[in-house]
Amino acid sequence: MRRALLLIPLAIFLVVAVFLYRGLFLNPTEQPSALIDKPFPAFSLPSVDGQSTLTEAVFKGKPSLVNVWATWCPTCREEHAMLNKLAEQGVTIHGINYKDDTAAAQRWLAQYGNPYGLDVSDVEGSLGLDLGVYGAPETFLVDRNGIIRHKYVGEINERVWREQLAPLWTQLSEEGGQ
Amino acid sequence: MKRASFIGLAGLLLAGFVHAAIDTYEFADESQRERFGLLTKELRCPKCQNQDIADSNSPIAADLRKQIHEQLQQGKSDADIVDYMVARYGDFVRYKPPLEGRTALLWFGPAALLLGGLLTITVIVVRRRRVDARPQDALLSADEQARLSALMTKDPLDKNAP
């Protein structure tokens, strides 16, 4: 009995060590989105090309990747080629041009290619605020009912797509509608 | 002239220390200004790991300050504003987490550890007292006592001693 008590400090040490070891591999910038499994927030904003007014209803009907981007964001530039590639492969990608200069955004799309089916112009950042955006690029996976299912913060590259997003995308594509 | 430029320079130097982020907001009254101060101190900047939105210079913190200011003007309560932020950025933005099942350890953990420590110390102290209360000769036999006395009286520097 007394012997067993002597092991308590060792046990406490082991528990703390396990937690601290786990902590070494956690990414502190990763935050779960508060909007998972919630409908896409309501909005009514012009498109980047200025041709039409878009609302949250445009994200219903089929699953899509909604990518928050801006010309002032260097990581968006790095990510752009990957988005172009995914769009070529038939992945539906919509854009939200977040707190950006619309003319600069149009030039950027003309220069680097346009992977976006629809591109919402959020100059004031009001939609970004409703989406809980804290740093571009951020990408939301929206299902065919317009429900946000997943959020990825940071650059989408081959590895991120293959390991994290592609399986979810396949799952969303296979799900039936309401 | 010299003095004026000195004062100007001092003012410039001090400006940096007064506050990390400077916006100009007008408030209806003093209590509203106070609430703004408290709310921006209690909410955490989502982009920066450990800064409240009052101190942060990041664009998102500036947006959130503006949002809080607007909502205060609209007469929203503090709870409304915190709920608004939590609905968008999650519990991460709260420096004061809500009391619920998964945060119970966070709220009560330190008190539980303190109680555990006090209990351990109490048990150890009580046991020691009991040991001290026992008669001395019960601890060592007569033989052992004699050996102990021999050892104690031996000169430690005397190398020839047995």
Protein described:
Chain B: Possible subunit of a heme lyase. Chain B: The chain crosses the membrane at residues 104-126. Chain B: GO terms for molecular function: metal ion binding. The complex is a heterodimer of chains A (178) and B (162). Chain A has 178 residues and is an alpha/beta fold. Chain A has a single domain, classed as Glutaredoxin. Chain A is 39% helix and 19% strand. Chain A has six helices and seven strands, in the order ααβββαβαβαββα. Chain A has helices at 2-6, 8-23, 74-88, 102-112, 126-130, 158-174; strands at residues 44-46, 53-55, 64-69, 93-98, 119-122, 138-142, 148-153. In chain A, the strands form two sheets. A five-stranded mixed beta sheet of chain A has the order 5-4-3-6-7. In chain A, strands 1-2 form a two-stranded antiparallel sheet. The longest helix of chain A has 17 residues, at 158-174. The radius of gyration of chain A is 21 Å and the shape is elongated. The mean pLDDT of chain A is 89. Chain B has 162 residues and is an all-alpha fold. Chain B has two domains: 2-98, Cytochrome C biogenesis protein (Helicase, Ruva Protein, domain 3, Orthogonal Bundle), CATH 1.10.8; 103-153, no CATH class. The longest helix of chain B is centred in the last third of the chain and has 30 residues, at 104-133. Chain B is elongated, with a radius of gyration of 33 Å. Mean pLDDT of chain B is 81; it is low at 16-20. Chain A binds chain B through residues 28-29, 31-35, 99, 125, 129-135, and chain B through 46-47, 49, 59-60, 63-64, 67, 86-92.
